[in-house]
């Protein structure tokens, strides 16, 4: 049966309070699909039904599912669970997910959970929950597999076999000394292939890719993707291993980062829920501030036009070409800016590339501008005669160059100012290009055609 | 030493033709960094140096690196290798990467390679290389670990130990019957935890996530990310296992897809090389067609303005607010369109959500429009008096609603027409909003203010 079919069964079973059928559907569904179902129920105000489903599961199953819920769903559903059940759930969750959940809880729920946990669990949770959002520390997990360097392959496989159920992954192992200083890494594949009596010390890889707890999540994700890692070891400043970030968490970060960058490119603020589940107020707030700011920025364009009112009154046909010229500047700028912002996000373009890319952009934008000038010249001559057509063509080359250079340069300037270059959004570039386009167009027109 | 330091050493060693130093630097560098170095050398016209470096490596090392080169670098460097070396290289590469390389080679090089391969290798290569670009078949690999259902855990571990060096991953195993029909999956972790005498048949997971060779790469990537898979099994239409797609290839696909979507959002066409390495001609071609198309589209806006020339001549101060109104329509539209396009790309929004989202968007855009109308009303009264301010405020509400609804709807229409919704780019939405904005603004102005 497809998972849609199973979800329908689950819904029916819940409505009928048929515990056996609930168990049966839950057992066959993937935890990911159950988590999605719970989020939907919570979003449409059926939180009590979601809580009933959670309580009917085993602790293990519950722990698998809870970390996959959206933050608002976690907060809402956790507040409806009895304190003992919540503490039991937290204890059973993977270390990174329970730290995230902990950060979502309110003060009194945190207190309830902490006092019910064993001492080492409590310390581990406090520690993981203390890292700043956006850093490697905040997404790493402390349930990794570590090995001493002095044992043999056979002994190491024994260690892994005994500890496997508690570890996020055993496919990549980390070799540490008595002070937990990271010495090397070893894959389970290499362990299985090696003779049973070889020593870990001889076998481990010493040239490793690592990051520290303060490394940004984007940089961690880029390393995992670039070097095809299953997990990236995270050390403190002293080189001691404190956690790992696994590839699946990196994929989630990469998707969230891409979404945030894409939203920023259209001046949409950060959304914590998927668009389908986000409330009206959240959507309004994520969009209004930039829109109002751009209204005020566009007054400059209006003022530019008003400044040239006499020229316009004398040659009203100039208005025909105005939208086309300022849109072209904005469009070319949007292209250049988007290419740069994405290049910087993927790490392909860095600050010192600016001059080289500027040279390239002048040539490309020049060629684009000339092509577009030719296209517009044809229309211009047919419609308004040679004089205005010449003004329009000259303006086109200049504004396309100008828009492109602004689009190319703004992301670098923002990056230097420690502002995310993705803030150099298409609407912002378009607004800048509008002002410049109007001034250039009517200045040339005034000079060539007179008043 | 950092990898930049090692790369400098390598460069010096190559210039001096010091084979020992070349070997030493190569051994310590990550294959990914060597591949990047080779791509750069090729891009700056130092292909002979790159070829020299490749020839000085062992076949294994060469095979590790070659699949990570960009397509143009692969094509150029492969054409400079002796035919026997190229065939030897192809034979040593992972199955998916060699199929990609094969597709990059010219006809005669393909022929040279094929005649030097063993029969089964040749068939496998032909088979993998025959799948359509963009499908699961084109990115899957045939070197997966498979097990019969009838053996025990101890026997299975023996099988994996013997075949591990040839397999892309042994952490996820696939249980097949005599006809290679996929029966279930089994992780190495579960194998290692299970008693040695249990049977694979009892242990394997039968409820699996799978895809077929025709599934799109985006859908494959979404499944791997959603269900946190190490690899996704790919079957033919008959349910026979023919390959797997691993998480690291899925991460590459996801990044390439995100880049393509982001570029499309600013009307930039597909680039096969990173922006820093792309040539002038490629960059020009990726940008010119949409720019010229939008020039012609913007003529409509110009025609709109010209149509209302009399109204404008009578009330020149209307021009002051024109940029602001049409930009606001475009900006609100850009936000709505970007939210929808990204939601569709991540699978969060599907076609049947349109009506529900439309209702939400009308409320949100209405609130946005009213807020912006209030902001602009204040400026309007101060600058031009109550009448024009009223016209401007009314226009603002209408054009923001209009822009938002166009931005929301266009992606759904394009999707229905089987065009990538990402084509609903910000510049396109802006252009549509410009035309509509001009017509609405001057129509209201003509009605309220007269001629």
UniProtKB/TrEMBL annotation, chains A, B:
The keyword rRNA processing does not apply. Keywords: CBS domain, Cell membrane, Magnesium, Membrane, Metal-binding, Transmembrane, Transmembrane helix, Transport. Its main location: membrane. One of its GO terms (molecular function) is magnesium ion transmembrane transporter activity. InterPro entries: CBS_dom, CBS_dom_sf, Mg_transptr_MgtE_intracell_dom, MgtE_N_sf, MgtE_transporter, SLC41_membr_dom, SLC41_membr_dom_sf. PROSITE patterns: CBS. Acts as a magnesium transporter. This is Magnesium transporter MgtE. The lineage of its organism: Bacteria, Pseudomonadati, Pseudomonadota, Gammaproteobacteria, Cellvibrionales. The gene is mgtE.
């Amino acid at each position: 049966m497809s998972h849609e079919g199973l979800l329908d069964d689950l819904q029916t079973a819940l409505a009928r309070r048929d515990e056996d059928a609930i168990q049966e559907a839950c057992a066959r569904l993937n935890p990911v699909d159950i988590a999605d179902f719970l989020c939907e129920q919570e979003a449409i105000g059926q939180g009590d039904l979601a809580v009933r489903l959670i309580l009917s599961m085993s602790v293990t199953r519950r722990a698998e599912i809870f970390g996959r819920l959206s933050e608002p769903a976690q907060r809402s559903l956790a507040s409806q669970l009895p304190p003992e059940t919540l503490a039991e759930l937290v204890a059973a969750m993977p270390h990174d997910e329970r730290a995230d959940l902990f950060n979502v809880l309110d003060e009194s729920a945190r207190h309830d959970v902490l006092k019910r946990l064993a001492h080492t669990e409590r310390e581990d949770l406090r520690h993981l929950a203390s890292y700043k959002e956006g850093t490697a520390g905040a997404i790493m997990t402390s349930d990794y597999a570590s090995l001493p360097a002095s044992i043999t392959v056979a002994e190491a496989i024994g260690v892994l076999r005994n500890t496997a159920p508690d570890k996020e992954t055993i496919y990549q192992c980390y070799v540490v000394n008595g002070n937990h200083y990271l010495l090397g890494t070893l894959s389970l594949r290499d362990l299985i292939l090696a003779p049973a009596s070889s020593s870990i010390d001889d076998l481990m890889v010493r040239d490793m890719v690592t990051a520290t707890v303060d490394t940004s999540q984007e940089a961690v994700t880029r390393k995992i993707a670039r070097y095809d890692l299953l997990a990236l070891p995270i050390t403190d400043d002293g080189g001691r291993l404190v956690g790992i970030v696994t590839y699946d968490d990196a994929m989630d970060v990469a998707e969230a980062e891409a979404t945030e960058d894409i939203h920023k490119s259209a001046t949409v603020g950060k959304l914590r829920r998927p668009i389908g589940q986000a409330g009206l107020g959240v959507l309004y707030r994520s969009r209004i501030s930039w829109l109002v700011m751009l209204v005020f920025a566009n007054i400059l364009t209006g003022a530019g036009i008003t400044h040239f009112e006499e020229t316009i009154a004398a040659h009203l046909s100039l208005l025909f070409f105005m939208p086309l010229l300022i849109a072209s500047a904005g469009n070319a700028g949007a292209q250049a800016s988007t290419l740069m912002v994405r290049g910087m996000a993927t790490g392909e373009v860095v600050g010192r590339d600016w001059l080289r890319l500027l040279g390239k952009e002048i040539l490309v934008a020049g060629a684009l501008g000339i092509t577009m000038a030719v296209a517009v010249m044809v229309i211009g001559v047919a419609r308004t005669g040679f004089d205005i057509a010449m003004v329009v063509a000259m303006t086109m080359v200049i504004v396309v160059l100008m828009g492109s250079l602004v689009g190319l340069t703004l992301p670098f300037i923002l990056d230097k100012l420690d502002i995310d270059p993705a803030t150099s959004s298409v609407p912002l570039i378009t607004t800048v290009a509008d002002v410049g386009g109007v001034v250039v167009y009517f200045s040339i027109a005034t000079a060539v055609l007179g008043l």
